[in-house]
Sequence to fold (412 residues):
Amino acid sequence: MKQRGILVVVSGFAGAGKGTLMKNLVGKYDGYALSVSATSRKPRPGEENGVSYFFKTREEFEAMISADELVEHAEYVGNYYGTPKKFVDEQLDKGNDVILEIEIQGAMQIKKKFPEALLMFVMPPSAEILKARLVGRGTETAEVIDKRMKRAVEESEGIENYDFIVINDDIDECTEKMHNMIQSSKYTPDRQKAFITMVREGLKNL
Amino acid sequence: MKQRGILVVVSGFAGAGKGTLMKNLVGKYDGYALSVSATSRKPRPGEENGVSYFFKTREEFEAMISADELVEHAEYVGNYYGTPKKFVDEQLDKGNDVILEIEIQGAMQIKKKFPEALLMFVMPPSAEILKARLVGRGTETAEVIDKRMKRAVEESEGIENYDFIVINDDIDECTEKMHNMIQSSKYTPDRQKAFITMVREGLKNL
Fold:
């Protein structure tokens, strides 16, 4: 019997390397699915429906909210973004672990709704390296970098609410560690309730 | 810098295969040390001091209790048994993870004293298999087997206090999973306080 997968929430500072890490994880190991968000914003050239996002009209998105079809949602700069429950549930039922990248407030919402979700926080090996990575991208102004560093300070206050921290030093080593954390987490007593009950009842009835 | 190791407490039903599992773990991977107990009982032929046990006189053992030199201790059939703090500390300082096999009440004592200890409970894949293993040993009377099964029912009530359950089906697979659980556990926020503080302060001071 294939066990239901677990919902894995990944947060972390901008520049910590979440994106590469998740792509690596899904590419290297079987049994993972990256959650695809729904949005009411217009597709950009090259963005495919169901791959980059599930594209919805504002009305469709609001209907999804009303019907409680989203795991979480938020509005940024006039557009809705959210995580469709259907995709997540389908993948979990198939036995896949669903990876969901989301910022810290969203992660806390999910933990409330799904206490069995696994929360992982991706960190750079040091603050200096985080700054060097943001500067190194060469795509951001000094002002944007400064804003991101300030935001990192804020976000760092919430790290203790996560189950694991993932220190992104060497990408391959880090991917393997992340995989092991996720798979190990399936063996906590609260995620093995059915098995424990089975053995307990079996012991009583022998 | 080599990080300090963690204290790993292993409990489980008689017949669940704890002994083989721990021997396998220590044989297959570096960085583990099996805790050696102290006892006031006399050595049996072939038992070596510091390997099977640290053999002590009753007076020496009581002096260790008074001096708070034991992680935990208990008295069985007129003999003292306990875990010397010195060995555990030395190994942890070296960066080794120390494995300590102990029954459920002892495990709870350790969790109180060392909240950062990792508690693992070894389980058979089913109650039937546990019974079959006990019967298969061929060394126990039906009465002893019955007593062990009753004891297993009692012990099973405490499983939720453990961090992980280790399902001992295939021994090699199980050893690898156990290793991954232990290594993953080093990345919970409460075991990475120094690192989190370092990054947090670093972010503020940049």
Summary: Residues 46 and 52 of chain B are 9 Å apart (CA to CA).
